[in-house]
Amino acid sequence: MNKIVLTFIFIFFVFCFSLEAAIHKGQKVFVKECVSCHSGGQTFVVKKTMRDWKKLMEQKGKPLAELHIKNKDAKDSWEYFESSSYEKKTKHLQEFLVEYAKDSGNVPACN
Ligand code: HEC
Could you tell me which residue, 54 or 22, shows the higher pLDDT? Predict the structure, then answer.
């Protein structure tokens, strides 16, 4: 019985840890690649809902990339949005963006 409880607690911590690690990775991407143009960091992320961000980040972030590639003012970001490093990290970026979206409320159990 005790073993089962301990196993559950262990799984829970591993789950929280990996979730936080993924969000942290996404935050690093955001600070490195987005803040130069979208200053304000979290206040920018908070403007959108979880659904908005999920939509922008679907298909490996295609809608978000296209939105920038179509806009001449975002020219300096084209190289990044067309690179494979963007595609590789969209999963982490999405986790970060959704976590800090307007209506996320965060994950209380993990904080
Ligand atoms: C070189 C500058 C630049 C970089 C880098 C950049 N953006 Fe943008 N972004 C823009 C411009 C310009 C627009 C269009 C004008 C606007 O809506 O502010 C835009 C628009 C957006 C929009 C739509 C705005 C809205 O209110 O609907 C989102 C969301 C967005 N960017 C997210 C990001 C994310 C996430 C990153 C990092 C992966 C990023 N941007 C990197 C310049 C940039």
Answer: 54
64 exposure class (CB count in 10 Å sphere: 0-12, 13-18, 19+): buried
Residue 28 token pair: 């690093």
- Given ligand 1 and candidates 62, 67, 72, which is best to mutate, with the most ligand atoms within 8 Å of its CB? 67
Of 61, 62, 59, 48, nearest in space to 98 by CA: 48
Do 93 and 26 touch, CB atoms closer than 8 A?
A: yes
Kindly give the distance from the C-alpha atom of residue 37 to the centroid of ligand 1, in angstroms, as a whole number.
7
The reply to whether ligand 1 has any atom less than 6 angstroms from the CB of 73 is: yes
Question: What is the Cα–Cα distance from 29 to 36, expressed in whole angstroms?
Answer: 12
What does the pLDDT read at residue 104?
85
* 86: pLDDT strictly greater than 60: yes
| Band of residue 111 on the pLDDT scale cut at 50, 70, 90 | low
